[in-house]
Design a protein that fits this description.
Distance between the termini of chain A: 13 Å
Structural class of chain A: alpha/beta
Strand content of chain B: 15-25%
Oligomer: heterodimer
Distance between the termini of chain B: 27 Å
Radius of gyration of chain A: 13 Å
Strand content of chain A: 15-25%
């Protein structure tokens, strides 16, 4: 489970399914989670780098792509997808430990370091 | 008439004898340092300063520290050239000092040196974490994952990732330093992105982090960090050194700061310069007048001594005798009261010593009495000394010979301290208090002390009478002493202002320029001295902290053809008389004063020693019938106006008008003798 794409809010039962999948990913006791929010070319680059870095340790790293942030509740939105942030990293203690803007999220080193900081 | 000429004479005399003058010693002390690291504080700084004297129409002279005496002309400009490169070389961080890293740099160096060990540990932990995770995942898939296994695995994963994070952070700092060292490093987000780009190589596609890449960066990174420490320290110290130049002029009247161009904002005091050849400045003429009056007063004392008209000497003797007598009686009463009586001591000093010993044994109450008796003993000694020297003085005066006057010059100096003590100290009050304490103590010992009490009153009155008489007759001597002390004033004033912070603001080392001291515009004149001080500062936490300092002292003189005024005692032998007469004499003498240079030969030194001069003099001759007759003559002068020989005409005489004379520059001689015997005028310290 290195890459999880959440459904959109417009999909049937999309929000509920998205919440269930997100919760399952975060609940994994051994995996650090990279939550990528949004869509577009910049986000594509982040997804590309994130999935590549996650693939080298699939049991320890998961990438969750939240294409439609409307699936997140207000609290989650504030924590995982604040303005200007493309990726949030959640540690083994289920807390956000690092966030990256899109430009840094597209670079291997910063993504790798953020995963490492999150315990992955 | 300015002070300091006799010091010059002394220096010349010493030069001829092959020794060093105090000023000379000071200069050579600095010269010897000449950049020799660590020999004396300030030596390196002094070696980095070049002094140059610029004289109108005569060019400039470099005043090297190897010069015999540091002299400057009173109409010159003294320039100080600080050598920026030499100061930097001496005071900026050397490589050893600069390589000392800061605390942060030390921490980073230690971390870099630990990297190989950390890499090995990280590899081991990664293997262990992978194994543990695989096992935990298997149990999870089997639905057997328990809390303990979960926690243990998580802990292992955290430790592994934390160690990896530490290594990645070190790698990041190495690359960040590399980017910062570049000529135009990016800032803000661009800086992070550049660092990220360069670190792509450390993050391979198939592994979390390339430890070997980090290992390869270590030697270069450690070297770069050390070089960075050196560069940082050097830049810091270079930018934070600052130099301050200041100058002080020490004259007979005062000690005042002098403006150093480019280094302070002190207002210049413009003063009209006395020409090299003139009848003297108003100040010099006033001093000549005072010295002539003092000489006249001394000659009158001489006459009174000759005619046995010095009653105060006998008064003092009588007072000292009475003091001893009364103290004898007091002692006898103490003995009668049961104290340790012994044979009558031979001298007053013995008596007092014995009295102190006895009272000390008697009672704790006697402590104060002992203190008072000791004071009385000191007083008695001083009185006896004054009496002895005054008698010697009267003999000197009565001798009416040059030798006698030179002896008198010595005696006047010897008298100085005791006379000042007796005249200035309120010892009459002290005496009354001392006697009262003794009487009170006697009463406590049940001794009838009425007589002692009466003596206290009588003695005090007698003493006050003697003092009044003494003061009246000693006034000329006191005047002479004041004039002599005025010649020593520069040293006293110098000591008084020692330690006063220089005025002005330190100038950063990158901005130091030459400093100029315009003696030609100042009040500086012959006999004055100027101290040029250089202080190097370093800025530490926004405060200037003194690093080093040095002071060079220059004597100020007039060079070339110059004229001097002097007040002399003239010993006149007039045609038709068979003895010398003493008379005050005012002399105007012209000299050729040459500057001392390192290349001086024996003739040059001899010229400076003899300092020949030629001039005219006016004497006021008191004849045997006490009438006053003026005389005018010409003279040759030697030894910086201490000795003059000449002839003249007594304008008031009817016949046998011509005379020849030997003149002694009394104050020049006193000053010179004082210096020769180390009684003043010598410089010490820098």
């Amino acid at each position: 489970m290195s890459m999880v794409i959440l459904p959109r809010s417009t999909d049937p039962d999309g929000k509920a399914q998205a919440q269930a999948k997100l919760s399952a990913c975060i609940a994994d006791p051994f995996a650090a989670v990279m939550i990528v929010s949004g869509e577009g070319p910049e986000i594509d680059a982040v997804i590309e780098v994130g999935s590549a870095r996650a693939s080298i340790a699939v049991l320890r790293r998961t990438v969750v792509w939240v294409r439609d942030v409307k699936v997140l509740d207000a609290k989650q939105k504030t924590a995982y997808a604040p303005a200007g942030i493309a990726a949030a990293f959640i540690g083994l203690n289920d807390q956000v430990v690092e966030t990256l803007p899109a430009a840094k999220g597209a670079q291997k080193f910063w993504v790798e370091k953020a995963f490492t900081k999150a315990g992955g | 008439m300015r002070c300091g000429r006799s010091a010059w004479f002394l220096a010349t005399l010493c030069a001829a004898a092959g020794c060093k003058s105090p000023t000379n010693e000071l200069d050579h002390g600095n010269a010897a340092a000449g950049g020799a690291a660590g020999s004396e504080p300030g030596d390196e700084l002094l070696a980095a300063l070049r002094f140059e004297e610029q004289i109108e129409r005569r060019g400039s002279i470099v005043l090297g520290v190897d010069q015999h005496r540091a002299e400057v002309d009173y109409k010159s400009v003294l320039k100080v050239h600080p050598d920026q490169a030499a100061i930097r070389k001496a005071y900026e961080a050397d490589s050893a000092k600069a390589s000392v890293p800061t605390e942060t740099e030390e921490r980073r160096l230690a971390a870099l040196e630990r990297v190989p060990a950390l890499i090995e540990a990280a590899k081991g932990l990664a293997t262990a974490a992978a194994t543990s995770l695989a096992a935990a995942d298997a149990r999870r898939r089997a639905g057997e994952l328990d809390v303990e296994t979960t926690r243990a695995t998580q802990e292992l994963l955290r430790r592994e990732s934390n160690l990896r994070l530490e290594l990645m952070t070190l790698a990041q700092s190495i690359v960040e330093d590399e980017v910062r060292r570049e000529p135009d490093p990016p800032a803000g987000d661009e800086f992070d992105l550049e660092v990220g780009r360069r670190l792509e190589v450390a993050v391979p596609d198939d592994a979390a982090f390339d430890f070997e890449w980090l290992r390869q960066q270590l030697p270069g990174a450690i070297e770069a960090l050390r070089a960075q420490a050196v560069a940082r320290r050097e830049a810091q110290e270079r930018s934070q050194l600052a130099l301050q130049l200041s100058a002080k002029l020490h004259s007979a009247e005062e000690s005042a700061p002098l403006h150093v161009e480019n280094y302070d904002d002190i207002a210049e005091v413009f003063g009209a310069k006395t020409p090299r050849i003139s009848l003297g400045s108003p100040a010099e003429q006033a001093q000549l007048h005072r010295e002539l009056e003092a000489i006249d007063g001394l000659l009158r004392i001489g006459a009174e001594a000759r005619d046995a008209k010095l009653p105060f000497i006998e008064g003092w003797k009588e007072w000292a005798r009475q003091l001893r007598s009364e103290l004898d009686a007091t002692m006898a009463r103490l003995e009668a009261a049961g104290l340790d009586g012994s044979a009558s001591p031979a001298t007053l000093d013995d008596w007092l010593a014995q009295a102190i010993a006895n009272i000390d044994r008697a009672s704790p109450l006697a402590k104060e009495s002992i203190r008072k008796l000791e004071w009385l003993r000191d007083l008695a000694k001083r009185v006896q000394r004054v009496v002895a020297v005054t008698q010697s003085l009267s003999v000197d005066i009565e001798a009416r010979s040059p030798a006698g006057w030179l002896a008198m010059a010595r005696d006047v100096r010897a008298l100085s301290a005791d006379l000042r003590g007796l005249v200035e100290e309120d010892f009459a009050q002290n005496l009354a208090e001392s006697l009262r304490v003794l009487v009170d103590w006697g009463k406590t010992r049940a001794i009838a002390a009425l007589e002692a009490s009466e003596f206290a009153t009588t003695a005090q009155q007698q003493l006050l009478d003697s003092l009044a008489s003494f003061r009246r007759l000693a006034a000329p001597i006191a005047d002479a002493l004041v004039l002599v002390q005025a010649r020593m004033a520069p040293e006293a004033v110098r000591q008084a202002v020692a330690g006063v912070e220089p005025v002005g603001t330190p100038r950063p080392i990158d901005e130091i320029v030459d400093g100029s001291i315009r003696l030609d515009r100042s009040l500086a004149d012959r006999g004055d001295e100027i101290d040029v001080a250089a202080v190097l500062y370093r800025k530490v936490e926004s405060r200037w902290v003194r690093v080093d300092g040095t002071t060079r002292t220059f004597s100020i003189d007039r060079f070339g053809f110059v004229s001097d005024l002097s007040a002399d005692v003239a010993f006149i032998s007039q045609r038709g008389t068979d003895h010398f007469r003493t008379a005050p004499s005012a002399a105007w003498t012209m000299h050729w004063r040459r500057r001392d240079t390192p290349d001086d030969d024996g003739w040059d030194n001899a010229w400076e020693l003899f300092d020949p001069g030629i001039g005219v003099s006016v004497v006021g001759i008191s004849t045997d019938d006490e009438s006053f007759q003026p005389g005018v003559g010409c003279h040759l002068s030697f030894f910086h106006d201490i000795v003059k020989v000449g002839g003249g005409v007594n304008l008031g005489a009817d016949d046998d008008r011509d005379y020849w004379f030997i003149g002694i520059g009394l104050f020049e001689a006193i000053d010179g003798i004082g210096n020769l015997f180390g009684m003043g005028g010598a410089r010490s310290g820098s």
